[in-house]
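Lecture 7 notes. Example A: sequence first, then its structure tokens.
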Amino acid sequence: MGLALALALPVNLFAITVLACAIYYRRHHRTDLALAYVALNVGVFAVSALMLSQQVSLGLAFGLFGVLSILRLRSDQISQRDVGYYFTALALGLINGIGASRPAVMIGLSVLLVLTMYIADHPRLANRSRHRLIVLDTVHRDETALQADLERRLGGTVRKFEVIDTDYVRETMTVDVRFRPSAETPANPDRTYPIARV
């Protein structure tokens, strides 16, 4: 078992380095979350490897997975993209920790997880659609006019929108918009958009 863990450790460290540094940090430039992913991964790997060496049941290992997931998701607000990286870092630590005795499966699953995140979060896919929650300083009663106004303000093609709130006293509308930016609009898929007043 000691030899298997000696192989699993560098595999795990390489996988989380590629995920957190080569993929996540280079695309999103958030040092805090990249560090959190590495720390989480190494911690889960250490605990799962210890449980495996002590012959603890896999049920307890997956219980740990669930507890860590709940604690992290309740701690603060992060985007759904960051949640994906979080679960991948968690899964890598667990897979490499408890799968040390089956190196081929362990390496194959690690490659699959990292490759999946590389493709799913590729800038070419992320650039296709954006999301904003916008507060307009006018009230449109016609949906066609509303869509035209949104496209003019956002500089792109509106794919879907939903009116969240209409305030006739202040003459404002809150609209949840998903749109595709035009070729001339500078691409910044990593930006988090707050409520925008336009």
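Example B, a different protein, same format:
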Amino acid sequence: MGCTGFEGVEERIQDIRRRDRRYARNAYFFVLDALDHTIVHLGRDAKTGEERHIGGRELLEGIREFASDQFGPMASLVFENWGVTATEDFGEIVFNLIDAGMLSRRAEDSRLDFVDGYDFRDAFAASFRERLAAISAAQ
């Protein structure tokens, strides 16, 4: 997924939500922020075009990392509040953004890239346990 331009982001997300009310506006902003995070984390921020592209599985990992940083073990509850209950929902959000012209895609990109990515509760609980173990080991 690649960004194509962000003028009028709020209005474009409102338009998406008029057509598809499943997800809160914050879920869309979060995905855009997680995409930026992932692009930087993978070192693609200085690249352009195809070299900058992030695939669905890469984005899911970026979402997991970004959500862990932003929300810790509460991430799954935040997502649930936004209407996002499985990684497939992130695929729906991404493809809504693509349909609105806010993200680009390659021919091989598919909603299926987001299927069965990870269980939210397990992923964020494990991340939290890792942080606690690191803090305990440092003392």
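Note on Example B: Helices lie at 9-19, 25-41, 56-71, 75-81, 87-99, 120-138. The first strand starts at residue 2 and ends at 3.
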